[in-house]
Recover the amino acids of this structure.
């Protein structure tokens, strides 16, 4: 039952989150000073965000109540969404949250000296940051009303 509840929480996170791309170099900034930032993102070093237009990001993992998702939780989340969940920055102000079943249009702005993405969808808002983990850029997004929970996204490669 707890696993089902965790998956349902993750699905609810998905249907209201979105954020930003980072530039390379030493353009990182501590995000702890941003009190409006969801708790799950506050201790993460954020990279400066450059042009997001035309980029797409897909769910690769996450945490719920401070606990990392297991692969089976991620698989269940993706299955509930029809197999795929992506955030697509369509231009310099608009974003789409797309699953295999549905698409939700929203807007975004860059805040805190271009280190935080603030996304707004109908009746939902999310914050996101980009961070470098190993050599991978990861877009982390969180709902300000769900402390300790976040989703991790990686960029969809054009192919």
């Amino acid at each position: 039952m707890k696993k089902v509840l965790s998956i349902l929480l993750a699905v609810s996170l998905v249907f209201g989150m979105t954020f930003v791309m980072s530039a390379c170099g030493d353009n990182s900034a501590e995000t702890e000073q941003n009190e409006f930032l969801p708790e799950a993102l506050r201790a993460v070093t954020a990279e400066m965000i450059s042009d997001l237009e035309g980029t797409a990001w897909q769910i690769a993992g996450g945490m719920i109540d401070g606990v990392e998702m297991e692969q089976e939780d991620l698989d269940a989340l993706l299955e509930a969404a029809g197999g795929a969940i992506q955030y697509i920055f369509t231009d310099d102000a608009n974003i789409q949250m797309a699953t295999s079943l549905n698409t939700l249009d929203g807007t975004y702005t860059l805040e805190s000296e271009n280190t935080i993405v603030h996304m707004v969808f109908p009746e939902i808002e999310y914050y996101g940051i980009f961070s470098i983990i190993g050599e991978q850029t990861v877009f982390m997004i969180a709902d300000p009303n769900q402390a300790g929970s976040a989703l991790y996204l990686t960029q969809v490669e054009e192919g």
